Amino acid sequence: MRTDAQALYEKGLELFQEDQLDDAEHQMRRAIEVNPLYEDAHEALGVILGRRGRIDEAIAVTLTLAEINPDHLMAHVNLSVFYNKKGGMIEEAEAEQAKARILGWREELRRNKETGMVGSSTTIEPEAAGAPPEPNAAPGPRRETFLEVLKIDAEDAVANFSLGKLYLEEEEYEQARDHLSTVVRVQEDYSAAYPLLGQAQEALGEVEAALVTYTQGIAVAGRRGDLKPLQLMEKRLAALNSDDAPHSNVGTQEETKHK
Amino acid sequence: MPTEEQVVEVVKKVFDPEIPVNIYDLGLIYKIEIPDDDTINIEMSLTSQACPAAQSLPEDIRGRVVGDLGVEAVNVNVVWDPPWGPHLISPEGKKILNLED
User: What is the pTM of this model?
Assistant: First the structure.
């Protein structure tokens, strides 16, 4: 039986999908007024605020969600993204990402136990804030969620970043490169995207493109004070610029004895 | 000649960033081979190919093993088959991470 809060939430979801963000936000806030512990509405409101560029408010709402349910996986995923977007909060972003990873592992182990499977062909690492949760949605991979977001907005930076990362993990380097290229094109200051784009380009043998990506990414990360991606890219740039830098598949580091 | 147990003890000092469990108990070390006194071969994986530690963890392990055991050649090979999953985390690791067993 649908409650008033659920009805408001579902209306807000419809409005979000129609890109009526002002009205969608209003519906989500009303849903939360009716049920202050409504997790899905908090998550959705955070996503909407993030989409509207009101990052501090998005963080505040999502922190409330994490207080309501500390084990809410998407709360930590979204906080990681929001901290990255805000800039200069790389440690906080990484801490939230780590929490999300661990919660993802817990879900995977629970699924394995339910299905009797041991091991998994892919480790699901849910990433950025994509679409708000569908009501009564079954847990599962987020790829479909991000693809749905792109049907609404093909240039959504967060969904493109998440998909780019998923494709990179699965060695689908062309798709990874395309999605991550979209991210840096539509949101130049998305510093986390540059090292991953560079990895995809290197894997495709597009070394010159990777050099450009790392150079641009270093400037962006330096400006924003995002030390982790900055350090990663500086290391890759140095490796590519050295005379005997291997141009092999990123992710497999077959080491040999030093000369 | 170092023993596998000695290598394991050294590897247990290396951590995936932000995760409070060492990489051995995370199940990331697949194989340790000691073919002679001066060589150690380690086969490992990572929790994700896009993991930021992909670049630094193998180097961290190599440096630690070279430094602690005085071995000249330490080869660290990252593999993706079989894919890592949380089922590989040790019981101690699962306890620390509060994961159900």
Answer: 0.64
